[in-house]
Amino acid sequence: MDPYSHKLIKTDFFHAKRDVPTRVAVVLDGHLENRNLQLIQPLSRAFSEKSIIELIATDDPNAKPGATVQPIAYIAFVELQQSGVILVGDELEWNGKVIGTIAGYDDTHMPNHQNVIISVSKGISGKELGLNVEDTITIKGFKK
């Protein structure tokens, strides 16, 4: 039995988690209004150091595990600088400001890379944000 599909696992199971620093490998610039991303049920994903993930923004207020997301903006491909766990609700920090929170994951391109969907107030691309190759984006940890 998958505990995620039965909604047995919640984010309060996670007591403390370290930051996951990433480095921008590719800055993206694109928007789609009908992407049809199918967010998977799990709230967390574990990644190895040097993994590449794709950050995709959405301003869809209903973006969460199990949902379908339509409007998106492509942010970047980033390389994890150390292994770690990424959790729904984690904040992404770039240049001292929070650019959004993890909404969920889409498996479209697996096993090549994981799409990591970011809830944002306004769907803007990495180019529009002003990202540069080699910038650091930190997926923030926490301790309760």
Classify the secondary structure makeup into a structural class.
mainly beta
- Into how many domains do the coordinates divide? 1
Query: What percent of residues adopt helix (DSSP H or I)?
Result: under 10%
Shape: globular
Strand order of the largest sheet: 2-7-5-11-10-9-12
- According to DSSP, the number of beta strands is 13
Radius of gyration over alpha carbons? 14 Å
Largest sheet: 7 strands, mixed, barrel
Q: Helix and strand string, N-terminal first?
A: EEEEEEEEEEEHEE
Query: Per DSSP, what share of the residues sits in E-state strands of 2 or more residues?
Result: over 45%
By DSSP (H or I, 4+ residues per run), the number of helices equals 1
Q: What separation lies between the terminal Cα atoms? A: 29 Å
- What is the averaged pLDDT score? 93
Low-confidence stretches: none
Account of the 3D structure:
With 144 residues, this protein is mainly beta. It has one helix and 13 strands; from the N terminus they run βββββββββββαββ. The protein has one domain. Helices cover 3% and strands 48% of the residues. The strands form four sheets. The protein has a seven-stranded mixed barrel. Strands 1-13 form a two-stranded antiparallel sheet. The longest helix is centred in the C-terminal third of the chain and has 4 residues, at 126-129.
